[in-house]
Amino acid sequence: MTNDCTQLYIVATPIGNKADLSPRAVDTLKNVDIIACEDSRTSANLLEAYGITTKLVSYHKFNEKQRTQEFLQLLQAGQKIALISDAGTPCISDPGRILVNELFDCGIKISSIPGACAVITFLSMIPRNTEEFAFVGFLPRVKNQQKKLFKKFAPVDTVFYESPNRLLETLENIKQTRGTNTKIAVGRELTKMFEEVKTGTVEEIIEYYRTNILKGEIVCMLYADSNSDEQESDIIEKIKKLKSLNCSDRDISSILSTLYGYNKNKVYKLSLAV
Question: Do 96 and 176 share a structural domain?
Fold first, then answer.
């Protein structure tokens, strides 16, 4: 460990290939007092491969609040804790935000040991036209909520996680919302032996996965809507109408994002420019 003042270490673990655990991560996990993990069985398998025998304590979405208070007491007593997830970087669609927020407010030193992240791994291996993207984590399960999200982020490439048993249903929802020619990329089993990345229209991807077995963790990118310029013109017209009613830029962004699902920051920037 390189920072003696640090008490909580956010440690990224492999998303599939065990060899991706960094030497710094191994050293940190060996030298802390406790490792907080989602599933001790999954983590024990990884740690055993590296000869790490540090005590494991469960920390998942069902006991986050309780464990946060327990960990706070241990940290205040001078112990050091590492937080890991089953795969990838903690706090990115995984437990950890409650703990980090609480410790930050209490002045506890936090450091991150970087490593694998499915989003970044995926984005680095697919064609993109811009650096800009929106990451929304796991999609809501309700179809109408998904549709609102697809429309809200239409002007920008949108990255999300999905489970194998829900992917086809989600793709069908995208097809209904944005059309059959909407472009999408799907990655699964990243860094593993059967790693696969598919890019094409949503119709092509649906047809492919209807006849191919879906397994493993999945990350997707829904490409920006090519008709987003038309949407921007529509937003500007609505902004002008609201400005004629003496609405402020902040009020306009709140109103249009609530009523139409537009990106709030995008509306605010457009409103400033109108």
Answer: no
